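User: Hi! I'm a student and our assignment asks us to look at how structure tokens line up with a sequence. Could you show me two examples?

Assistant: Happy to help. In each example below, the sequence comes first and the structure tokens follow. Example one:
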Amino acid sequence: MKRYIYIALILGVTQLNAQVKDSLSYNSHDVESSLFFNLLSRDLSGIPANYSFYHINNYTASSLYFVFEDGLYKQGGEPETIKQFGIKTNGLYKNKKGLTFFGSFAVEKSFYNNLKWNLSYELPVKGLMPDPHYFLVSKGAKWNNQNYGLDGGVLVPLTKRWEWMIKVDYSLFNKYRTDYDPRPKVTFNSLGFTSGVSYQFADRHFVKIGGEMGYSHIDNEVNFSNNNHNIPGNYDIYVRWMSGYGSLTNTVSSSTMRRNKWTSWYVGHAYKAVGWTLLTDFTYRKDKNITYVRGAVKDYKDRSNYFARYTPETISATVLGIVDLARESFLKFKLSGSAMSANNMWYSKGGKTYVAKCDEINLNIGYLKPLSLNASLDAGVFLTYWDLNQRDALSTTYSRYSNMEIGGHVMRSFELGKNMLVSPIVKSRFRLNTDAEFAQGNTDYLNNIGANDFAGYTLRGFYDEVVYPDYELFSNNELDISIGTLLRFKTSARVNTQFNFDLGFKKPFGSLQYFQEEHPVRYYGMMGLTLYY
């Protein structure tokens, strides 16, 4: 791993362009001088071929950051406290021959406190696990995690009309539970390759097409300092296996192997005119995530070794428009939508046991206006609607909720001398629940558990601390608001420095029944130091 870090540091320092500026000032198309172009760069990076259709100034950014979250207003499978420390370098460089290089490198250390019901490799999102199969126990503990990410690519003009793109993406993380049995060790490796071409078929029109192939390997091992502790009677630490949304079974083994292969295709169109650009993209992705019964598998194609197969599919579409207004003002809008559906095949049960669906549509609008040589107004609003449902046939549990989210940000830059700018920023988001439905067919069993039914105790705890609170969380309204500031100053003739911090909280409207507090709150914050050169 050290050689990857060494190579990435060399790329981050030497590959990308260093820009020379006499003083701090507003600079159009510059990622470092506005949130507008910073977010636009992320929008374009979704399909890197789009870097060719709208100009963003060359940059290299190296950052140190600290992020924390704390509070009881959270999902049941999330830690109570999260602390993250990291370093990241990313950048974009286009040379005189038309070659465009892009890439990033990141190392992150994270610490969890009181993570329960999850001994696996990902945290839940909107009440869904990225994969419904994982080890679980009800006893919370601290975790120590490390993450590495390295990606990069290049756009190569082949002729005046043809351009080729290739990108490589590698990630690795290790997660360890550091106190209290059981003590899982999770190792995740992922490698993906993306390639595509763009073709100019008319004066202002371009078409692009490409695809991605990737592979992930997950090794999830569980140990005990005293193996005699791992007995059903100790049901708060006895390791079990979750397979869906309320279906629980004994462990597959003390160590499982997971393999995920995915393929993705995209096709799009770009229109470039004087003063504005319109990018349209369609993407399809399919994953096949297989869990194996035994850790030592000789033949991965032998289905007798399969425990389960989880297959999510996602279709998405994006329209991104950028308008260059008068006096170096800019307007952008992004309309995107996605539809995800997933099925789980549990082989020992002989059929499909769990299904999940999530539909989402987003509208984002951003605006940037220079107010003077060194000051600017940066604002944005967004509107999101999403509908999610999941059903488990074995546990006869079903949930569905629909939510509308609206929010935005306002950032105003002020000059504090020739070489210093301060930019206060306010962000807010309000989530309005528009519909919710929950059904459960195993309530009689959970209310009448036998004295020695330790699996029943575990399952009842899972419903009380995960299923019910998660449904309640996303079927209620929520307010999320934060304030912060960016402070930019010139360090040298070649380097600009940016310090930023952000503090916020989110809370529900009204009282909650399944949380430790009736009015829980979750606080979060971030501090970062970035060098642009």
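Example two works the same way, sequence first and then tokens:
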Amino acid sequence: MIEQNKTHSNAIALMLVTVGGTAVAMVLVYTILTSRGNNLSQFAIYLAVAGFIGGFFNPRGMMYPFVIATVSLDLLKRLLILFDRPTVMDLYFVLGIAPLMILGIFCGTLVGGIFGKFEIQKRHLGLLAISILFIIASGIVAFRDLGAALALKAIADSAAYSILLFIVPVLFQNWEEFWKLIRFALFVFIPVGIYAIYQSIFGLSEFEISYLKSGLTIMVKELEDVRPRPFSTMNSAHTLAYLSAFLMALSLLPFAAGREFADRFRHRWVYAILSILFFCVCFVTLARSGHVLWVVAVGGLIAFATKSRVIAFYGGAVACFVSLVVFAEKLILKLPEWDAKLDKSTDFLAQATRIQTFYDRLYSYSQLKNADNYSLFGLDFEVFTHDAITESLVNYGVLPLAVLLIGSAFALRKLHRSILRIETAGIRRITSLLLGATMAIIVCDIFFGGAAKTFPLNAYMWIAMGGVLVVLFQQNREQTGSVRQSNPVDSFTPVQSFPAPAMPVRPSSAPTHPIHEYPV
């Protein structure tokens, strides 16, 4: 009888949810179709609110729709042109979906920690403090340079995703759970990559060209090129190149794990195909800096295995950057000569072999040799910059830049020491590849600019860094658990020693037995 009542109650609840959901959907559709303005942007508002609510009530589950949003929002932004003449506010409504999702996930994670749904430890709170400080510092600089309206947009587009450094280690307790999220991201990117190859072969669609001409994007310069470069659902060809190279590196995780985790990573040939597909996507964008990203990421997998290789990795990166700064002017003078010697017989080759675009980057490096660009807290006048180091020096000054570099050096030192202490080789390689992919985005931002602040690259950078911490925290828990199991006695309770009991004198006629030894 009780079971029948329970079944009946479930059926009634399901019917109410179905009817209520249908009614809400009909009201939303009616509101969208009858409202003034761009209907798609109106739909984006409801989608953003739904993303916040979903993130609040199911933070871990909402990470998967967030991954979909990272590769689809710019396409949704371009589709605005099909409904009505879009405005800047319409773009804000669409691009606000991902930040509201993250805000909902963050609030849901905090509330879940308070009520015991998630375990938030002291180290998690330390990560939260780091993220908040980063957002505050970025906000102060943005308000100073851009004003209130643009500063809020800049914070939502870039700094806000640093909160993933706290969210990911709380929501995912082991690397197997984190791998499910990465695997989902790899498969979600497949249609994005195929569409990029389609654009490379057949060109841009009419609605994409119309959007480029709308005046709402600086990517109109693509129409002035010999042929528009594919950008698929991303905001530019460079973002597409970086993201495809990043995911190409992460598709090698099953191979980095080695044979000892063959049962966890089945059908590795699928990921081999994905890595080839993502490489092709990076190639068709003709953005050469994308190849630097996957090379650095794979280099991290190899270099972070031993202490000497770690030193060589960072030493080589510093030496390369210093060389570019020292010889920037000489390289600028050589660029036209080298460019003239390259084959330009076709439009494709003209774009693929174009090296004079490195002029901006080299000129930015040369600014580091100008003493006038050095100040304690930034300059009052504008200086052209195209890399993260020069931009930080000019905008923030020597003191904040020094604090950032020294703090990053100490954090990386601690991370690498923790990774080198991982005993299982496969887990150590997985962690090295995740950290290598993170460092690859930072290296590209230092050398080329614009990588670590661009959505969705910044989101994936913090997700990968959070994945590194997931593995390290898991290793710490397992090591602590093994120590407790091997030594169940409370380490703070001294083991008492007792004197050996007095042995009775055995009669000479008694049978002999071995004398038992008692611990003293």
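Here is something you could point out in your write-up. The CA atoms of residues 88 and 369 lie 39 Å apart.
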